[in-house]
Amino acid sequence: MEFIYISITIYVILLFLFCVAFKKVKRFSPSSKEPKHSFSIVVPFRNEAHNLPQLLKSIEQLNYPIEKFEVVLVDDESSDSFQISSYGFRVFELKNIQNSNSPKKDAIQTAIAGSNFDWVITTDADCVVPENWLLDLDIFIQTEKKEMVCGPVLFKKQKGFLYDFQQIEMLSLQSVTISSFGLKKPFMCNGANLAYTKKLFHEVNGFEGNSTIASGDDVFLLQKVVVQFPEKVGFLLNSNYVVQTNCAQSWKELFYQRVRWAGKSTAYSSFFGKLVALVVLFGNLAFIMAIPFLSIGNFKLIPIFILKISVDLLLANQTAAFYQISMINRLLTALFYPFFSSAVALYSLFGKYEWKDRKV
Fold first, then answer.
1. Residue 139's closest CA among 35, 228, 241?
2. What is the torsional sign of CA 4, 14, 284, 263?
3. Rounded distance between C-alpha atoms, residue 99 and residue 331, angstroms
4. Which of the four pLDDT bands, split at 50, 70 and 90, describes residue 84?
5. What integer pLDDT is reported at residue 212 of this predicted model?
6. How far apart are CA 270 and CA 127, in angstroms?
């Protein structure tokens, strides 16, 4: 009982701090400036022939001078066939040069070596980008003088509980990401909407030190930059600066994806990031442990039980409100999430998973 009270209390306090910190992050309103920077849009891919045309079409519609950006596609041993069509911008394909246990990090390094511009912006093959993606980024860089810029990623709208669950979970993750900037302790970002200079990448020795971990091309790089150059990192908080991606199409795919994400946390260089991961794990485990006590009539746990659900939904709701996203099945998600999250966390410590037809 004491573990339940302490764990959920600490969890609630932490999430409440995140909710407060969210309001401290500066909202960015783009001013009118002439485009200045040039960008290499890096897209690592494996068996994405069905998704890439939609991404490239959204890039074709960008409101940015075509001579100031290029798209670098890096093929990581795809078995399907994708042919680059004719677009109004420069796009070319490279073959991934794999030197580590992390094909995606290798793909990004391959792209950086083969690209032509000083700024790199990464995204995923199953994404679509907003019309002013590069323009807003350029104005933010000019205004805020940053060399690494993090941005939000949300899911393309679908129907059904599987989608509702993922969107609310993603809203919560985005809220924690944004709030960590408000606390001046950023430790999370999403590689589907992440920009940085080549100069900064080389100054922190790129992915050196975490190349044995399959994922984490985004968070590990961010955490290295935060340690060495915290003033160079920013979050572009604007309701129109959102990259949309596909959600998982099955619970198995979702589970393995989250296991892949969770597996990174043990290797975080950020103490605060590790602390948050532990508090979330223990808070969700305590929530599960409270249910048998409630079932036998120990109703003293009801207030803290309700408080846990309320702060979860409050955290997700502030991001949903900012980006004008509807949260459907929110209560069911809040009740189911502790079980899903705990299973993912525990499995990630011992289990293997499959991703992109590879076993990890």
1. 35
2. negative
3. 45
4. confident
5. 67
6. 28
Cβ count within 10 A of residue 26 = 12
Distance CA 135, CA 35 (A): 7
C-alpha 246/C-alpha 249 separation (Å) is 8
How many angstroms separate the CA atoms of 320 and 115, rounded?
A: 36
SS3 string, the chain, reads CHHHHHHHHHHHHHHHHHHHHHCCCCCCCCCCCCCCCCEEEEEEECCCCCCHHHHHHHHHCCCCCHHHEEEEEEECCCCCCCCCCCCCCEEEEEECCCCCCCHHHHHHHHHHHHCCCCEEEECCCCCECCCCHHHHHHHHHHHHCCCEEECCEEECCCCCHHHHHHHHHHHHHHHHHHHHHHCCCCCCCCHHHEEEEHHHHHHCCCCCCCCCCCCCCCHHHHHHHHHHCHHHEEECCCCCCCEEECCCCCHHHHHHHHHHHHCCHHHCCCHHHHHHHHHHHHHHHHHHHHHHHHHCCCHHHHHHHHHHHHHHHHHHHHHHHHHCCCCCCHHHHHHHHHHHHHHHHHHHHHCCCEECCEEC
- pTM here is 0.92
Closest CA to 210 of 270, 150, 279: 270
CA distance 101 to 360: 9
Q: 47-81: string of b/e by CB count within 10 Å (b at 16+)? A: bbeebbeebbebbeebebeeebbbbbbbbbebeee
The rounded distance, in Å, linking the Cα atoms of 125 and 48 is: 6
The string of pLDDT tens digits covering residues 242-281 is: 999 999 999 999 999 899 888 777 778 889 999 999 999 9
